[in-house]
Amino acid sequence: MNRHEFLQGLHTKLKPRTYLETGINDGKSLALSRVPSIGIDPAFAITQELQADVHLVRTTSDEFFARSEPLAHLPIPVLDLAFIDGMHLAEYALRDYLGVERFTTASSVVVFDDMLPRTIDEAARKRHTHFWTGDVYKAAEALREQRPDLIVLEVDTQPTGVVVVLLPDASRDGVLPGYDDWMDVAMAPDPQDVPQAVLTRSRALNPETLLASKGWAELRRLRGRPDTPQLRERIRAAFGDVVR
To answer: What's the rounded mean pLDDT across residues 86-114?
Structure first.
């Protein structure tokens, strides 16, 4: 299953009310949305037919999230589903997540693209290969290490994997503890020290298995309820069939 097939599956299972994407490029993944959406890319060149109410923003995600009301186009100031596929450098990907998280609920879902490079060359910060993920895999490592409240799931989509993040917390207001120290690690020069677990995909879930989880139906049922520790435990338990 490729990333677009997986993302289509998420739209079907989650039935989001709103959608946001960073790095829309030609619009192929944005075209999957059927709900009010925002697409952010400083150099997009849409070639796909978009079948939703879409606000296209030709700017960087940093500038977009710095606006006073970035989600003004949407009917509600909440992102049920977000897809991060912008600049292929770890610090950009993590900032995109922190920007998105400010507008989430516990039932929101955030997906990162290009998170499972197949080689060290493919994971280089300075591109020198045809297929290139960059070092965005580090963003998942940072969230896994510094935000144990999150569920961070690697998914074995083709060709370069995705990561699904569950249980985001808007109350953190875009702040990640230890961000400055993490930046020293993220900016390491090439070649990157890519963990074997990433290269071999030993932690990665089969995408069909994840889409079959009963957790998606529970997310829909719990959408809109007050964010409480009990709510978060219910969501975590609902994904117990796939969370290792």
So the answer is: 97
Q: What would you report as the CA-atom Rg of the chain, rounded to the nearest whole angstrom?
A: 17
- Predicted TM-score of the model (pTM): 0.97
pLDDT level of residue 90 (50, 70, 90 thresholds)? very high
Structural domain boundaries, residue 152: 3-238
Distance of CA 154 to the CA centre of its chain: 11
| Pairwise CA distance, residues 144 & 49, whole Å | 36
Is residue 243 domain-resident? Answer: no
Assess if residue 167 is contained within a domain: yes
Tell me, what's the pLDDT at 178?
87
Asked if residues 136 and 161 have their Cβ atoms less than 8 Å apart, the reply is: no
Confidence (pLDDT) at 177 = 86
pLDDT tens, residue by residue, 63-86: 999 999 999 999 999 999 999 999
Structural domain contains residue 244:
no
Based on the structure, what is the number of domains in the chain? 1
Q: How far apart are CA 123 and CA 199, in angstroms?
A: 10
State the amino acid at position 146 in one-letter form.
Answer: Q
Q: Encoding tokens for residue 2? A: 């490729």
**Domain CATH for 198:** 3.40.50.150
Rounded CA-CA distance 4/20 in Å is 15
Alpha-helix residue ranges (DSSP H) falling in the chain: 3-14, 61-65, 90-101, 137-146, 179-186, 196-200, 207-211, 215-222, 229-238
- Where do runs of H (alpha helix) occur along 15-156? 61-65, 90-101, 137-146
In a domain, 114, yes or no: yes
Pairing between β-strand 162-166 and β-strand 151-155 as defined by DSSP bridges: antiparallel
